[in-house]
Amino acid sequence: MNYNHFVIPFAAGALILFAILVARYAYWIVQMPRSDRRKAWTGFFRPAFFRSLWEVFRESLIHKKVFRVNAMLGWMHMSFAFGWFLLIIFGTIETKFHKHKVFNMPYDPIFLRYFEHDEKQFFFSQGFSFVMDFLLLILLAATFLAIFKRIRSRFFGMKRTTRLILGDRIALYSLWSVFPLRFLAESFTSGLHHNGGFLTGTAGIAFSSFLPLQQLELPAWWAYSSALFVFFVFLPFSRYNHIPTELFLIFLRNCGIKTSGRFSGFTEFEIYSCSRCGICIDKCQLAEVRPQQTQAVYFLQQIRRNILQPQTTFNCLQCGRCTEFCPVGIKADTLRSIKRTDYSLEYGFSYKYAEEKIPPPALPVDVGYFAGCMTHLTPSIKIAMENIMKKAGVRYHFIDRDGTVCCGRPLSLSGNERQARLLMRENKYIIRNSGIKTLVTSCPICLRVFRESYDLGIEVLHHSQYLLRLAEEGKISLKPTDAVFAYHDPCDLGRGLKIYEEPRMLIARCGELLHTQQEKNEALCCGNSLADFVTPEPRKQEMRDHTLQELLLNNPDALITACPLCKKSLTYGSNVPVKDIAELVAENQ
Amino acid sequence: MKNIVVIGGGIAGMEASAFLAAKGYSVDLIEKNDTLGGRLANWDRLFPTMRRGSEVTEFLAEGVMQEAVKVHLSADIVRVERHHDTFLLVTTQGNELHCDAILLATGYDLFDARRKEEYGYGIYDNVITSADLEQIFSSGRDILTQKGKKPSRVGFVHCVGSRDEKAGHTYCSKVCCVTGVKQAIEVKQQIPDAEIFNFYMDLRMYGMHFEALYKKAQEDFNVQFVRGRLSEAAENLDGSLALKVEDTLAGRPMKINVDLLVLLVGCTPSEGTRKMASLLGLKLGFNGFFKTTDQHTMTNYSDIPGVFFAGTCIGPNTITNAITDARAAATAIDIYLSGNQLANRKMKPHEEFWLYPSH
Q1: Could you tell me the CATH number of the domain that includes residue A568?
Q2: How would you list the strands of the sheet with B101-104, edge to edge?
């Protein structure tokens, strides 16, 4: 058996890491709701397992989503993850060949070069030396890129990088030192025994010409082993915790487990899967206007360190851009809205009006129109909708013509889940009582909560979807014009409900639709989100102006959106007319 | 003889031109419209005296005529060049005006009430602005709803586009409160049996005799003042408007129907202000009006020597104060051009933006 004292730090570090992770994961699994646990167990025997393996390869090793953000950044992540993975795989196989044994000590592949010098004894041993050296070179390059990224993050497509805490720093520096130390240790040994691959062999000869390798060999291996020890011990308390945790998250997600209304074992897996890569920082529009550390990465970090501030919890547009761009797919916006219920504040408002509301009588019609509070504040939209339906000969039930009972989402977003439920119950009763089969609303905020929390059992549509249906059925015909339009994707409609195409198809029937730099799932928020309770108005207007700048870049004749709140927000800053999709349809009908 | 170009033929521009000409300068007055008088030309009667606005315009025009100010109507500035102490301005007619000082009197624009869509201006037939109502007064027509009915209930909404962060105007427009009181009285004079409601946040009756006008409106004209901001207006089938307001003094929500709704629109920085700022390279303040050199002591001075301000281009103001300010600007220019030491006094720069949230 190969042994030297220097294997102790590595072995101890690996054991400590293993123990911490097992304890943690066991605790989280116990905390998961029973139904989720059952999904996870049965997942091993379902295609979910293979889907997970494929996703692990794609995201944990190749980092496809990071490549989408920036190629250099993707390359760096891939070289570390996939490079290290291959180094372990090839190292293990090489060891097995070397020793003609299937089972070896776990540290054997790590320190193989120190223990085994005679390389000509087995098949393809030259090839192994080459591959191992090649992988080491890739990892050294990755280390160089990682250090360079700390100095010039813009080179990697990032304006800002995450501010690191102490645990992160120690883990980071130990990771930076692991591969250079391995290189030195292997080169020193190669220099002494005149073997090694193209990298360590050549470097060994060079080092032997001016360094006392006899004296340096052991300290180098000690240093390499110690760097691994530090990295392993700090890993569970640093950003690198995402490496093992992400594997579990991917599997659990593929088993159909979702971020639901409260924190559970699953959300722990989510929270600890954050790699603090910082991609969400640049994607957060708040980062452009205020220095506060409120982005998803900091929110999750504060939860992990148990220092979460209400300020951080409520300083978020809930636009969903962080979730959209997160390479790990953490639903940071959902986590934040769950966390808000912890601070549920009773302001002493009465919502009695909802109970006192007399539901309008049921009418023998199939279609119901729910304008929503915000649409009542932008009356051109509801007038347009009424005109279109009148012209199309649709008989409909205007459910909230005489005032709306709030859909509840604004209260949900402020963490007042109990009051929100009260309003939702009343509204649900009103809608059910109307006897309609299709509910059409002009407000994506209402639409989202109707679909996600109401369980109405009827078809719920955004008016853009309904208008497109009317157009396709030939009930309305749209006159094409020469006008050129830009379209603003509302957050709740786009990223929230994935309704991107219907408004665009309607616009295309009325004129030419321009592309914008960031659109559909990448679209910017109008800045006037109901969900942010911290950002002052002028900063919101700054975000709005930035969004407008992008939307109006190609000089459209009008800006079209599909949300009354976005319309209101954009109108105050735009120098071209801002219209809802319903207004555009009404004008071109 | 030294030349001065005054840009903007409203109240401040006219009075300053006359005073400068009287001091012996050669004055060119540039006005983009085809008449002088600015926004005053569209106003019927003035608070608190109820004198006709045209009387003031005539008084100001008399000064311009008497002092032989060179008036350029329907003219605009297209180019400005600065040579040491002098300026060259080119007008749309191609006139090249060399001058030693420029006085900016570019005034204000009215807030576009269409932007506050919840009030329904441009959407509902019976929603008009205070400026529209003045036009009805000037024309001598009866105040009627769109369907030709005499309104039995009229609502006035204060602070439309003023003190409204969402609308991007955090400042007070100063003149709308008292205009609302004045117009309420005028409507009541024309339709004595109409009920008039004024919906306000605060009533700022700061000027001389304003409070008396407010008291008269309540006591002699029975105008109702409701403290609360209108949240939304909706149109009924008969064209009347259903208003949702919170009466914040009584602490209860209120629903009320009116036949006519008047929006008291605030003042916003004018298009001319923005244009001249970009031509001259002048800074605009946080609210979009010209930034004066000092808030207390140098309100007529810009950061460019030889360029001065007068009137509402630095912020909303009454006619009275615009005239006073015009005369002050004329004196400041005279002091500057005569090389008097008074013009060289400096103030430590102050920071306007500390008042506004930056983070």
Answers
A1: 3.40.50
A2: B70-72, B26-30, B3-7, B101-104, B307-309
Residue A50, CA distances (Å) to A43, A85, A245, A250, A308 in order: 10, 19, 18, 11, 37
ω into A503 cis (within 30 of 0): no
CATH number at residue A376: 3.40.50.1860
Select the CATH number that applies to the domain covering B113-267 from these four: 3.50.50.60, 3.30.9.100, 3.30.450.20, 3.20.190.10.
Answer: 3.50.50.60
- Here the ipTM equals 0.85
Residues A76 and A224 in one domain: yes
Which residues are within 8 A (CB) of A169 and not within 5 positions of it... i.e. 6 or more apart? none
For residue A78, count other CB atoms closer than 10 A to its CB: 18
Q: Is the CB of residue B238 less than 8 Å away from at least one CB of chain A?
A: no
Q: Which of A572, A574, A576, A583 to mutate to test the interface with B (most CBs of B within 10 A)?
A: A572
CA distance B52 to B123: 31
Any domain includes A250: no
Nearest by CB to A380, from B117, B165, B231: name it: B117
**CATH number assigned to the domain with residue range B3-107+270-355, chosen from the 4 options 1.10.3670.10, 3.30.465.10, 3.40.50.150, 3.50.50.60:** 3.50.50.60
Contact (CB<8Å) B166/A536: no
Ordered per-residue pLDDT tens for chain A, 589 residues: 688 999 999 999 999 999 999 999 999 999 999 999 999 999 999 999 999 999 999 999 999 999 998 999 999 999 999 999 999 999 998 888 877 777 778 888 889 889 887 655 666 778 888 999 999 999 999 999 999 999 999 999 899 989 889 999 999 999 999 999 999 999 999 999 888 889 999 999 999 999 999 999 999 999 999 999 999 999 999 999 999 999 999 999 999 998 877 889 999 999 999 999 999 999 999 999 998 899 999 999 999 999 999 999 999 999 999 999 999 999 999 999 999 998 877 667 778 788 888 888 888 899 999 999 999 999 999 999 999 999 999 999 999 988 889 999 999 999 998 889 999 999 999 999 888 999 999 999 999 999 999 999 999 999 999 999 999 999 999 999 999 999 999 999 999 999 999 999 999 999 999 999 999 999 999 999 999 999 998 899 999 999 999 999 999 999 999 999 999 999 999 999 999 999 999 999 8
